[in-house]
Amino acid sequence: MPKAYVFTRFGGPETEALVDVDRPSPGPGQLLVAVRAAGVNPVDWKQRTGYARAGGAARELPAVFGNEVAGVVTEVGEDVTGFGVGDEVFGNPVAGGYAEYALLPVTVTAHKPAALSFTDAATLPVAAATAYDGVGQLALPEGATLLVTGAGGGVGAAIVQIARTRGLRVVGVASDGKKDFVESLGAVHVPSGPGLAERVRAAAPEGVDGVYDVVGGEVLAEAATLLTDRAKLVTVGASAEAVEELGGARVVRARNAAVLEAVADLVVRGDLTPHVTGTFPLDRADEALRTVEEGHARGKTVIVVETAAGVDAESEADSVAGIEAGA
User: Fold this and answer.
1) Pairing of strands 30-40, 69-76
2) Cβ distance 106 to 82 under 8 Å?
3) DSSP for 265-311?
C-alpha cells in the first residue's frame, strides 16, 4: 500500500505517523499524481494544531500533511482536459502531499517546464505563489522601497526576489544568522528583534513605501508604524482582524494555474531561485517538519519521494545538491 505522513489528531509532533493508506482515486476535475517532491511550509505544522484557513474547515483526521507537490500524472478524473497520464505537473493537493500519491484539482495544477526540477517545482505552489500574489497586491511603483519581514524563510526569500524583478528596493528583516543569505537575494538586511523600526529607519532613511509581513505579532505592529499609507501593508503572518486593526490587509490568494505558470516562468528565466537548502526522504518527514517548525530553515525544505513510478529519492536529492553547488 502507498505510504503517507499524517497527523492522527490535533496537537504536537507526538500526533504524527508514517502510515499505509489506500491509493486515492481521482474525482471529476482531479488528477492522481505519483508524488516526486513535496514542499514543507509553516502552514503544514499549523494545520496539525487545528489551524484552518479563513473560510475553510479544519482537516478531517487522520490528515495527510502538505500543501504543495510536484509529480507525474498516473490517472485522470472525469471532465479533465489539458492533462494526460505521464504529464509532469505541480500544484496544490486536495488533501495532503507528504505521500506517494496525491490528488490535485486541475484548477490549481500546472504543467512543469522541462527545465524545472521536481524538487524546485514543489516549492512554488505555496511559498512562491503567495509571494507573487502579495507583491502584486501591493502594486508598488518601480523604485519604491518594500520592507519584508521574515525575509530569510521560504516565502520571504521569494518575496524579495519577485520584488526585485519589479524594480523595487527591498529591506529584509531576518536574524543575524541569515544576513548573508538575505543580502545574496539583493535586499538590505536589518536584524530582527526589539528596536526593529529604528534599525529600518537607519537602513532606509527615505522611508519605506510598503510592508509585506510574514511574521505577524509585534513585528507586524512595529513595521506598520513605518508607513504613512497603511493600505500598503499586507501580511500572511497574522489574522485578517489583526492586520485590519492596523489599517492593512491579508494577502488575497489567487489560487489558480495562471499564477503557478507565472512563478515557474520566473524560475526558468533565472529571476527566481527556490533556494532549496534541505531535502529529506518521506520516511524522515518528521525531521523536515521540525526544521521548519523550529525556525531553523533558511530558504525551502523539500521532501523527496520515492514512488511506485520508480523515482530514486537519493538521486534526486543529490541532483539538487549539485545544482545548489553550481555543478
Assistant:
1) antiparallel
2) yes
3) HHHHHTS----EEEEEEGGGHHHHHHHHHTT---BEEEEE---TT--
6 contacts 22 by C-beta, under 8 angstroms? no
Which one, of 261, 233, 264, lies nearest residue 246 by Cα? 233
CB 83 within 8 A of CB 29: no
Residues 118-136: what's their mean pLDDT? 96
Q: Is 108 helix (H, G, I), strand (E, B) or coil?
A: helix
Q: Can you give the pTM of this predicted structure?
A: 0.86
Q: How far, CA to CA in Å, does 261 sit from each of 67, 113, 212, 252?
A: 17, 9, 22, 18
Cis status, amide bond into 13, omega within 30 of 0:
no
Q: What pLDDT, in 10s, does the model give residues 40-87?
A: 988 899 999 988 765 556 678 899 999 999 999 999 999 999 999 999
- Helix (H/G/I), strand (E/B), else coil: 210: strand
Helix residue spans in the chain (DSSP H): 42-48, 118-121, 129-138, 154-165, 179-184, 196-203, 217-224, 240-245, 257-269, 285-293, 313-324
